[in-house]
Every structure is written in C-alpha cells, then in structure tokens.
C-alpha cells in the first residue's frame, strides 16, 4: 500500500507541474500578445520622431566626382567654431563632402573691387565661383535680364534654412527668385546713443520713449534739440544731438517707403514726401552736427569724440564703438517711427544673397547641399541671439534689435546707374525745397529706371 501511495503521489505532483507549465506558457503567450501593440506604438513613435513639421527637400543621392565647390563673398565664409550652431554646420558639411564626393574652397574678394570682378566674370561666362554672393542693386534686374543666373526659388522651400522673403520677393524678377540666404539673416540698423552723455545733459532716458510707444520723428527732433548745448557758455555749441548730417535712407525706411517702387519712381508718394520733409526740417533748422569737411566717416568720428548723443548706423559697427569708447556706456534704439507706420523698421540699400551662375551645372544639388548643412535644431531661442548677447550689455538694447529686425525695407535706388541719388541728396541737404526736388528729379529718375528695365 505504501508503494502504491508513493506512485499515486508522484503522478499527482507530475500533473501539478504540467498544469503550472501550461499556465505559465499561457500567461507568457498572453503577455506576448499584450506586448505586440506596445511594440507597434514604440515603432510608430520612433518613426514619428524622424518626421518634422516643416518642408524638407527629399533625400537626394548623387556623386559629384570630386568636384570643388567654390563659395565666393567679400569675406571668408568658412564656418567658424565660435558657437554650437556653427560647429554643427561644419560637421554637417564634412559628412556631406564624404557622402556626395566633393570639396569646398572659400574665395574672398575685397569689397572695393568685388562688384566689378564678379560682374565681369559672369558676363564673360567664366564665373569666379559656384555659389556667389551678389548685391541686389546690380543683380535685379540687370544680371537676370541677361540670363546669367539660375532661378532657385523652387529649391528653397525649407523655411527653417532659407529666408523666404529673399527668395520669393526681394530677389525676384518676373515671378522667379534668383538668390537665397540663411533664414536667420537679419540686418539691423538704427540709432546708437551715448548713455553717459545723456545723463550728463539731464536728458530723459531715451528708452522710456520706446517703452511708452512714443519714439517718433517729433520726439526724436525734440531730443536732438535738447542735446545741442553750449555747456561752457562760450557762445558756441559743444555738444550735439545727431552726428549724421544725412538721414534720407533712414527717414524713407522708417516711414516704409522708398524713392523707387519696382520700375517706377516714387517721389510723389505721400509717405516719401513726408520722409523728405522730415530730412528738410533737420537740415533747415541745422539740427545735426555741422560738417568739418570730413569724408563719409566723419559722423563716426563725431560720435567717438563722446560729445554727440546719437549716431545712426548698422549693428555691425557697435562693437567698434564700444572698443574705442570704453569710458562711455552706449545703447541701441530703433530709428523713430514715421507718421505713416505703426512699427519700427530697418533697411538695406545693398541687399545681398547667394546666386548660382547659369554656366554652373546641377544648381539643385548645390542648393540641396546648402540646405542639408544648415538644417539643424538650433540651441538658441531666437535669430542672432549669440550675436546680440555678445554685443549688448543691456537687455533693453537686445529687445530693441529684435523688434527692428523682422521689418526690412529694401531701398533699390542704387540698382539704376544713372539715377543721381547723390545729386538728389546734395540738393536736399543744401536746402532745396522738397517740391522743387520732386519736380526737378522725377522725370530723370524715371528715365534712369526705364534704361535698366528696357535692356
């Protein structure tokens, strides 16, 4: 009996083990079935991680057979390693060079001879480079009308890389875009001011005008008048409000207007007339610091002396002033608003962007490479952050630059070789009435424009 009991007990234990194994196996099968949807979700998430919410040119596979791409500008455009974004650009370039079998050469040409050399090379059909920075004023429409450049706007749809305004509006002719530039490119122009002198003269902090939304042509002229002082009572001014005798381009852009509009002169436009009358008031009331016979750098020298409150210029000049004027605190303001606008504006009269000569093969590949170099997730919160933070001491100056940057007015009067801008400026600064100027120059401006558009 004991033997049979032992046999029965062993059989019972074997049955329990078998049942447990079946249950475990079933549980594992159920777990596996339950895991399948999770794996699917993970796979989907992994796929979605690679997707972006902006347009990217589809991947292209090509071999450039060891070709050297020449990139030309009036400065060395090779990537530096002074910030994380630039380092990433350089790493992307190196990877692309290996993948597509090409090299890069950077060519820098002195600005003084740049336009002449570049234009001559294009006309001869022997361009100096493959990617060439060109000024709009001698490119649109002149070079485009001669069929010297590729249209590129169909390749520049990635708005994280390419400035859409440049490709689709500013560098266009007859519905096509002929150049591109970085999406983050911003040219800031405005007013530099001497905070130290402002305090010494007892003038209201100029930033308050901006904060109050009261920085306009009227308050600007009032501030300039306040700063024109005879501080030692010798009968002559020894501090001045404005270093620049001419602010025609600043006045035009700050009222969102220009001397030309496409293929038409624009002198009779009400906003243009307002801008010219504003300049005439500064001239006729002798508000700006008078010339001492210097050249075009004279306003810069006036500001560096520390006895002139305001200088109108481009942001790239600011570091030089801070270096040369260590005893003064400087600041930045937008140029004041004109009566026809509600925003602050910056301007460019020599807008530049990258074009591809018509003799260069496969322009779509070059633009594609440029896109893949620059399509990164920037570490910065806004365009030009690194530049602004390294330039300015005060947060309010950074905010002023950011406020101005997006509102660009391009002044095209230099696109017409026979449009006598300098004669026009001279007559205005010598006191010629605005109505007389418009009557005298209107037809001549239109004739100069027609010459270019009729070629």
Layout: helices, strands, pairs:
Blueprint: H1 2-49, E1 67-73, H2 84-100, E2 102-108, H3 111-123, E3 131-135, H4 136-139, H5 142-145, H6 164-170, E4 172-173, E5 176-177, E6 189-194, H7 195-200, H8 206-211, H9 217-227, E7 240-242, H10 248-254, E8 260-261, E9 264-265, H11 270-284, H12 298-304, E10 308-314, H13 318-324, E11 330-333, E12 346-348, E13 352-355, H14 363-374, H15 385-391, H16 395-404, E14 408-410, H17 421-429, H18 434-453
Parallel strand pairs: 1-2, 1-3, 7-10, 12-14
Antiparallel strand pairs: 3-13, 4-5, 6-10, 6-11, 8-9
Describe this structure in words.
The protein is of the alpha/beta class and 455 residues long. It has 18 helices and 14 strands. The chain has a four-stranded mixed beta sheet. Strands 7-10-6-11 form a four-stranded mixed beta sheet. Helix 2 (84-100) runs antiparallel to helix 14. The model is unreliable at 1-14, 28-35 and 45-49 (pLDDT under 50).
């Amino acid at each position: 009996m004991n033997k049979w009991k032992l046999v029965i007990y062993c059989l019972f234990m074997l049955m329990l083990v078998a049942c447990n194994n079946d249950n475990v196996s079933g549980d594992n099968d159920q777990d596996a079935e339950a895991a399948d949807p999770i794996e699917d979700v993970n796979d989907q998430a992994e796929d979605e991680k690679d997707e972006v919410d902006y347009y990217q040119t589809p991947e292209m596979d090509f071999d450039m057979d060891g070709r050297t791409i020449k990139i030309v500008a009036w400065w060395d455009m090779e990537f530096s390693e002074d910030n994380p974004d630039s380092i990433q650009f350089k790493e992307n370039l190196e990877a692309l060079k290996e993948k597509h079998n090409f090299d890069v050469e950077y060519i820098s040409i002195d600005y003084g001879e740049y336009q002449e050399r570049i234009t001559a090379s294009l006309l001869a059909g022997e361009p100096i480079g493959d990617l060439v920075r060109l000024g709009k004023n001698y490119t649109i429409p002149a070079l485009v009308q001669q069929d010297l450049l590729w249209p590129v706007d169909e390749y520049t749809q990635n708005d994280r890389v390419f400035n859409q305004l440049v490709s689709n509006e500013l560098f266009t002719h007859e519905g096509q875009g002929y150049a591109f530039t970085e999406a983050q490119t911003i040219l800031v122009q405005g007013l530099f001011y001497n905070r130290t002198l402002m305090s010494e003269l007892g003038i209201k902090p100029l930033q308050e005008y901006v904060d109050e939304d009261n920085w306009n042509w009227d308050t600007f002229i009032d501030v300039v008048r306040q700063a024109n002082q005879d501080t030692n009572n010798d009968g002559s001014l020894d501090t001045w409000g404005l270093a620049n005798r001419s602010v025609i381009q600043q006045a035009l852009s700050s009222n969102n207007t220009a001397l030309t509009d496409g293929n038409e002169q624009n002198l009779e436009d009400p906003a243009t007339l307002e801008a010219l009358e504003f300049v005439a008031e500064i001239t006729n009331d002798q508000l700006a610091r008078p010339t001492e016979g210097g050249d075009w750098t004279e306003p810069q020298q006036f500001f560096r002396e520390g006895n002139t409150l305001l200088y109108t210029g481009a942001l790239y000049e600011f570091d030089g002033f801070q270096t040369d004027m260590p005893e003064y605190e400087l600041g930045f303001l937008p140029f004041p608003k004109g009566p026809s606008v509600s925003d602050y504006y910056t301007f460019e009269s020599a807008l530049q962007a990258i074009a591809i000569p018509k003799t260069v093969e496969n322009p779509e590949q070059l633009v594609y490479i440029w896109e893949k170099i620059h399509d990164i997730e920037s570490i910065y919160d806004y365009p030009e952050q690194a530049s602004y933070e390294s330039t300015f001491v005060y947060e309010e100056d950074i905010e002023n630059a950011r406020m101005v940057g997006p509102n660009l007015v391009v002044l095209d009067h230099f696109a017409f070789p026979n449009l006598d801008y300098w004669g026009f400026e001279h007559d205005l600064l010598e006191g010629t009435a605005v109505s007389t100027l418009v009557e005298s120059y209107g037809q001549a401006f239109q004739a100069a424009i027609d010459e270019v558009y009729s070629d």
